[in-house]
């Protein structure tokens, strides 16, 4: 039975998150790094290219694809994480990679769901980029209108953000019907923001909405997993989430927890930044929901 520690290496998580989107040569580098990461510190890039059957350019492109400036930056990231002691890494629940029909007890199901959910939040937190996040908050606070999109399981987080922004009286739109989304995005303007919650960046509906928003000149924000694709390279701003997947067939996705973590963090930051303007709306909504029933 294969296990993965809850406190897993964030570099490995980045590699696995965007592995399917890498070109063939970069996949060979990824395989080498995942299997022989200790060799990164023993050989220069020329020798690493030879050992992996690739080129120095492929190594540089690979490092950049997973968010580093080059091989040196990648090595530094690995080195800093290597300082976490094995004793610390062994604490907490572990993830068993099983299909839904392979569990032998309710306790093992609860343990595994807990482990994947916690890891989704932890690894997304470790990808947190303060600069990018601050820019996204500014764009949302100053937007004339905010259009929020999410397809499939990603619609759960999209709807949650929609409800939270409604509470503070922001001009926000969300629809689950694709035709309604097409109608609203056709009216988007350069003063507006389009936010895309995405599990699958290749989804045709999402790409259709993204293309229209881009053509209209709106500010585009993607909240999605790591990887090189049209959304991550084309959107004005990208907030990355990541999560472990036990079995794609099961439909049990810890990505929801990563996205909801991002929603709560966004909402809190927006309220903090715009508090003087939204304070009364927070108070009003609180009082309405906590008003005692009339006798």
Automatic annotation (TrEMBL):
InterPro entries, per the entry: Homeodomain-like_sf, HTH_RpiR, RpiR-like, RpiR-like_SIS, SIS_dom, SIS_dom_sf, WH-like_DNA-bd_sf
Residue runs in coiled coils: none
UniProtKB keywords: DNA-binding, Transcription, Transcription regulation
Domain HTH rpiR-type, first and last residues per copy: 9-85
Entry-linked CDD domains: SIS_RpiR
One Gene Ontology MF term: carbohydrate derivative binding
PROSITE patterns attached to this UniProt entry: HTH_RPIR, SIS
Domain SIS: 136-276
GO-annotated biological processes: carbohydrate derivative metabolic process
Pfam families in the record: HTH_6 (PF01418), SIS (PF01380)
Protein name: HTH/SIS domain-containing protein
Organism, as annotated: Butyrivibrio proteoclasticus (strain ATCC 51982 / DSM 14932 / B316)
Taxonomic lineage of the native organism: Bacteria, Bacillati, Bacillota, Clostridia, Lachnospirales
């Amino acid at each position: 039975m294969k296990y993965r520690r809850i406190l897993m290496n964030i570099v490995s998580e980045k590699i696995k998150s965007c592995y399917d989107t890498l070109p063939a040569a970069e996949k060979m580098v990824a395989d080498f790094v995942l299997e022989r990461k200790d060799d990164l510190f023993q050989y220069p890039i020329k020798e690493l290219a030879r050992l992996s059957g690739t080129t120095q350019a492929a190594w540089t492109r690979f490092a950049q694809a997973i968010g580093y400036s080059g091989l040196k930056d990648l090595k530094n990231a690995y080195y800093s994480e290597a300082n976490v002691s094995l004793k610390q890494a062994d604490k907490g629940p572990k993830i068993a990679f099983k299909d839904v029909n392979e569990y032998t007890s309710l306790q093992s199901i609860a343990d595994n769901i807990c482990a994947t959910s916690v890891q989704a939040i932890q690894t997304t937190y470790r990808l947190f980029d303060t600069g990018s996040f601050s820019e996204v908050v500014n764009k949302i606070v100053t937007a004339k209108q905010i259009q929020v999109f999410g397809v499939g399981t990603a619609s759960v987080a999209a709807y949650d953000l929609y409800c939270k922004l409604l509470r503070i009286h922001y001009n926000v739109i969300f629809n689950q019907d694709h035709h309604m989304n097409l109608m609203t995005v056709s009216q988007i303007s350069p003063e507006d923001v389009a936010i895309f919650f995405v599990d699958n960046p290749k989804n045709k509906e999402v790409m259709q909405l993204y293309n229209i928003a881009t053509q209209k000149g709106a500010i585009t924000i993607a909240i999605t997993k790591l990887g090189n694709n049209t959304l991550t390279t084309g959107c004005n701003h990208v907030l990355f989430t990541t999560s472990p997947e036990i079995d794609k067939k099961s439909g049990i996705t810890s990505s929801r927890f990563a996205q909801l973590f991002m929603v709560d963090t966004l909402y809190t930051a927006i309220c903090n930044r715009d508090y003087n303007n939204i304070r009364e709306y927070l108070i009003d909504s609180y009082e309405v929901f906590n008003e005692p029933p009339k006798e």
